[in-house]
Amino acid sequence: MVGIEDVAREVGMSASTVSRALRDLPLVSQQTKQVVRAAADRLGYVRSAAASGLVTGRAMAISVVVPAVGLWFYSQVIEGVDTVLRQADYDMALVNLGGVGVERERAFKRSLLRHRGDAVLALCVDFSHEEREELRQLGLPVIVVGTPVRGLRFVGIDEVAAGYQATQHLIDLGHRDILHLTGGAEEQQGLSSRVPQGRLTGYEQALRDAGIPPDPGRVLEGRFSMSASRDVVDDLVESGSPLPTAIFAASDEMAFGAMLSLNHHGLSVPDDISVIGIDNHVMADPFGLTTLAQRPFDQGVEGARILLDELAGRPPRKTSLVLPVHLIDRGSTAPVRA
Amino acid sequence: MVGIEDVAREVGMSASTVSRALRDLPLVSQQTKQVVRAAADRLGYVRSAAASGLVTGRAMAISVVVPAVGLWFYSQVIEGVDTVLRQADYDMALVNLGGVGVERERAFKRSLLRHRGDAVLALCVDFSHEEREELRQLGLPVIVVGTPVRGLRFVGIDEVAAGYQATQHLIDLGHRDILHLTGGAEEQQGLSSRVPQGRLTGYEQALRDAGIPPDPGRVLEGRFSMSASRDVVDDLVESGSPLPTAIFAASDEMAFGAMLSLNHHGLSVPDDISVIGIDNHVMADPFGLTTLAQRPFDQGVEGARILLDELAGRPPRKTSLVLPVHLIDRGSTAPVRA
DNA sequence: GTGAAAGCGCTAACAG
DNA sequence: CTGTTAGCGCTTTCAC
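The joint structure predicted for all components is written out below.
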């Protein structure tokens, strides 16, 4: 292992100077910096994160806590976070929560409390009271991306407004019998249930504002999953009961499931039934799905920026950041048939 | 911050004893261990990764290098890796490569060379000669998951055999005009091109073995993307030229794109055209796609185990690990029509 | 079984 | 502008 002393010896200077030169601090002559950097490169010197972290008290990394990396939304946020971190030369410690229970607890303590990161960016995680308290004690800046969490700042969209707008789009097209595919059972995975709840609330409000009494029977659980959604729509269609003229899915993946089911049963989208989702998933385009687009990548970018700003000593942002959504019409919705 | 000294003071013992007790080393009485642990919990003590890492020389973390987290395959591998790491109480440093060029270089140096992890698990990354050399110098155990890389151990499937088997399945059903959707242009992203190449090779061999001369015109680039695949199949269908009776897509996502295109043009799968993919993507089930299933989760598990074994001082595995694939028939392939 | 002392590789405060 | 001196929080000899 080549340490800072080796570099210092190579250039005939002290370790402090090398340290300063390598970090591009002022108070060091340009020439020295060049010489030092050249020597460091030549010797293949790399600063030990442990050693510098120990003395500075900064890990130069951010802990990103995810319920599961496999979901599209999360991976997008991570990409956004990564972009910002890379620019700032920060690393990323990924903490996969993996459900509730003992495992979750261990995962939580693992990286977070071990000071693997100087700040925490949590994705749609609903921290328990205890966890929140531990975080507070650690004094790490925390931000939640994707869902409001009581007592913590967040970056995300206005879920209620999104649900409202999507539903309103269908109402504007003349639909009055609108099925809603919701999430549900999120708490069981330690996820926040406020996302599906918000979208559902928006859906109901839009209906009421249009003079349409919400029908609980028109709300089905798609569990944020494509297969589950396909299954519930399958059941509905096969039951022979009257079908809605439109479906508002709380996520694109659920909308895909619905579309597959409808197609499979020979029903045309949007001629027979209109479908709208929320997200603008990569596959929304090939599916031709009309959706209320949000940008998880940007949410990750903003969340990371807020954290880094705070770490850089700039005045911390106290409020949450609500990002806009916009409708992308890809033709899966149409005026209701006469 | 509560340090080891605080715990020591609390129990009236030395820091050394506390350190030993907390790590469950022998040479410490059971009673002491219990007392120490209780005190540590009470005070909310957590070991500083930086400090212990500095002295032991181990980061107690693994660096996972991915080209991009957003792809289904990668996220699955990461989940698998995470499971193993969690059990071993290791953390994960995620290194997103993000294309080629300067950015990639920086990302590479960032965590890897900074000793953020004690070993490196790389996903489908084709390291440059230089990078490989730097890794070697660092002396970190390295393993590649998902693709063979010259000079490094890997965990994955036999790509050629998989391509062969998928194609053979179609041949067995009587198909002779089989289109192949391949990847391509991976090098540009710093990805390995050996995955699509291997599958293509297997495809061609199967054809030849069946006495069917491979037709280069029957190989289209789907770029491992659903939309790109939909587009090329759209073009093919709309060109009016004779259609194949079957499609073998080198990934499920490409197969989805093909299915959407065919459906969109009123062609039935499998009545008009059979489709088979490789992966067993989460959406293969709702799509009803027949596929050659691989288990990226298991690949992650195995890769992580190999690394941890080596770190634990067990004899390192020198050879690559080739995992099996198996056919899952969901009805998207059928005998060719007379 | 347990404690005292030394030091991991680096940075920060203070001299010069 | 550069060097010297301490020490970050922990683990690890080496004593006892």
